[in-house]
Amino acid sequence: MFITIVILFLSSGTELVNSAASNSLADCNALAAKFSSTCGGVAVASITATTGTNVSCSSGFTALTCPGTMYGSTCVFQHKLCVTCSGSSTIRIRIQTNGLPRFCPNVPATMSELNIDFTVNYNPDVSVNSPVQSATTSSALSSLVCNINSETSVPSGSNYISSSNAASMATLAGVSVDGVTILNVNSANNVDPFFPTGSFSAETVDSCFGHPNPSNNGYHYHIASGCALNPPSGTIASCAATSACNANVASYSITSFSSYRTLTVIGIAKDGHIIYGPYTSAGVEVTSGFDICNGMFHDSIGNYGYFATRTYPYITGCFGPGNYPNATLNCTTNGPTSYTKSIYALNQTTSSTTASTASTASTASTASTASTASTASTASTASTASTASTASTASTATTSRTASTSATTASNSRLSNGKRLSFNIIMIIFTAVCFLVWFD
Predict the structure, then answer these.
(1) Over the stretch 323-334, which tens digit does the pLDDT of each residue have?
(2) With contact defined as beta carbons under 8 Å apart, do 278 and 255 qualify?
(3) Would you list the DSSP string of 212-273?
(4) How far apart are the first and last CA of the chain?
(5) Which of 245, 264, 282, 308 is the most buried (most CB within 10 A)?
(6) What Cα–Cα distance (Å) separates residue 193 from each residue in 110, 190, 282, 330, 393?
(7) Of all helices (H) and strands (E), which one includes residue 401?
(8) What is the pTM for the complete model shown?
(9) C-alpha pair distances (Å), 95 with each of 92, 121, 212, 221, 376
(10) What are the backbone dihedrals phi and psi of residue 161, each rounded to the nearest 5 degrees, phi first?
(11) With 60 as the cut, is the pLDDT of residue 188 above it?
């Protein structure tokens, strides 16, 4: 009887959410295996001095633009990539790449071999309750994300060490599974390269969404590319010559993952967190649940990663975790409509921050004016009642009451990890005592 009671209680209890990420040596090695490495699993002194995999391109290159050797009209270059893991208590991952893909890009400009080499803590533990980035206004958000240099520095918890030329790493955001660099999302004008604001023109890319960097001629991505997982053969077209890509490059990027509708590793960020494709493990496209950096807590273990999205910043706009403000970006016409926590982030949010989050989420969905949003955002404080009663319009009062109700409900329904565990233990002890007294 007693066992039955305990089982029933635990099965109906709140899910226990851990806060430690999956960052063991085995986890790191499993991640490294997702990359198309050419080094045999052993770190090298210099990636450019190694022998890689030949890529032959029969057209599209000249002696001036080929990153390898021309044989008649054929350009032959080598893809070189080495991803290795080491350590015991703190696992480190080392990324070495020459930046050249496994396919023939469509680049009418010079493309060169790079020498990218950095080491960082693998998938470091982070908390939704301690965001690394926190922008609360549209101005602050834009200053952070709409900044080509926003990922020059890496959070100290990542213990990032670069063995490359500093200039070549300044705008690096991460490395794709095919060794191609992922640069900061912004153009040199600090705007969305595909959907810019103002009078700026969109940048040109090929149908794999890559192009060379004018500063070092390195081929790179700003947006997720399915070509990294399944390299095309032969000559690829430009985005402009591909109707679906030319119509909407962001949507076309998502369709390139049509064969990968599950949680799929597509790269690693410079801060050590994993970059995933546009789908969750449930096969659902990620359109919400991410923070200002495009990062998301995506499981009950506490893992945080960046996800490919059809909205700016497409892969990552800063190194997170970030916060979830009711704010918009001024450098893109394709920004997200809101920032909301995933269910896992909500479950990991402590009671001191849950009310504020719920208020923000409620405000984002119900506020119709700036003044209404401001009133709703105060609903999680002790002055909520006063704010609602003095609101100048009925809609403002309604918004405030909605935010307050959401905050209270969220706070009551989500216990922190420690509280959940303590509550379960207390109830088990209580049940045991009652059982003993019953049969005394």
Answers:
(1) 999 999 999 999
(2) no
(3) E-TTT--EEESS--GGGTSPPPSBPPBSTTSHHHHH-HHHHHHHTTTT--S--EEEEETTS-
(4) 15
(5) 308
(6) 20, 8, 31, 13, 41
(7) helix 394-413
(8) 0.79
(9) 10, 11, 20, 17, 45
(10) -130, 125
(11) yes
